[in-house]
Amino acid sequence: MVKEEQLMEEEEKCNLEYEYEYEEKKNRKCKNIIEEIAEKLKSEVEEEGKVEAAKDIRKLVRKSSSSGKTRCRFAAAGVIPPLVDMLQCSSSSLIAREAALLALLNLASRNERNKIRIVASGAIPPLVELLKFQNGNLKELATAAILTLSAAATNKPTIAASGVAPLLVQILSSGTVQGRVDSVTALHNLSTSKEDPKLVLDARAVFPLMNLLKDCKKYSKFAEKTTTLLEILSNSEEGRGAITNADGGILTLVETVEDGSLASTEHAVGALLSLCQSSRDKYRELILKEGAIPGLLRLTAEGTPQAQERARTLLDLLRDSPPENRFSSSTLERIVYDFAAQVDGTDKAAETAKRLLQDMVHRSMELSMSRLQLRASPCTPSKVQSL
């Protein structure tokens, strides 16, 4: 029995040694191939050879079982600067630029250090130029590259300072579906930068963003990014004007407050609040007309802490009474809680109060729907004659 166990241990040891030797041979082979491709890319004079090397980089990264290591090895072999040179060289053909761009995209994917290396090597200016091209495929690849590189916090100030924002806004209006999605995500990445320069968004972004928000699910991650950008735009007079003038702009924000995720409702109510705080007289009726009250009431009980506070502040601004006589949402919640505590005791007060508030929201929504239906009903002949 002991001898049998010893034989099994020796066999297992042999297998491990074999696997180690196999892995070592595989790594050496991969390393040699990477060095050959890198040397070819750096030393080749003819464009055709450089294009072939760039394609080999992409192919090897995609096929490698350990793509993370392969990306690091290629970067260590020095392929990033010559690939960036292919992007920015005025004599490079469109084929060469596309091959270099695809190789860089594969090297940057899921690799923070490579993202930073690519930007440090000067990739942003040529990418900005590619966004101006008429060639749709190159423009879309450049958008994807800006999106990928902007995911690294270190890169955000450099990209924001490059003047890329107006070009991404253009793609929001005229790009493919994928191009528009990538543009929104890239702009969202840049908007989260904590360093200067900050992203400056043109109010012309409002109309395509509103159209995208109308068409997507309000609780999706994409809606969260879109509403983040709309909230930023609501902080300028031009942005507020564009939101108001956009077809169904305020209604779309109200619908997001009602149906969105925790994040998208927070940004949507933030945009509405920004409108009302800038000019209560100008925006109050416009927001009320779209039936905002039910969603805001629900948000005071179910949103994030910031969304709840924003919803309460907006509800106070939307009420008819003057500021000094206004009945705040927090006061209402306190009254309901005190009543629930008297009925069910302090242990169950919070649960009872929440149920009572939800019931109030439900009734308010029914009343709001009735008003909306009444407002939407066609005029009868007698009404027309009486006008």
Automatic annotation (TrEMBL):
ARM repeat spans: 78-122, 122-164, 204-248
Alphabetical list of Gene3D superfamilies matching this protein: Leucine-rich Repeat Variant
Coiled coil: none
Keyword Repeat among UniProt keywords: yes
Domain U-box: 34-330
PANTHER family in alphabetical order: ARM REPEAT SUPERFAMILY PROTEIN (PTHR23315:SF256), U BOX DOMAIN-CONTAINING (PTHR23315)
Protein name in UniProt: U-box domain-containing protein
Organism the protein comes from: Anisodus acutangulus
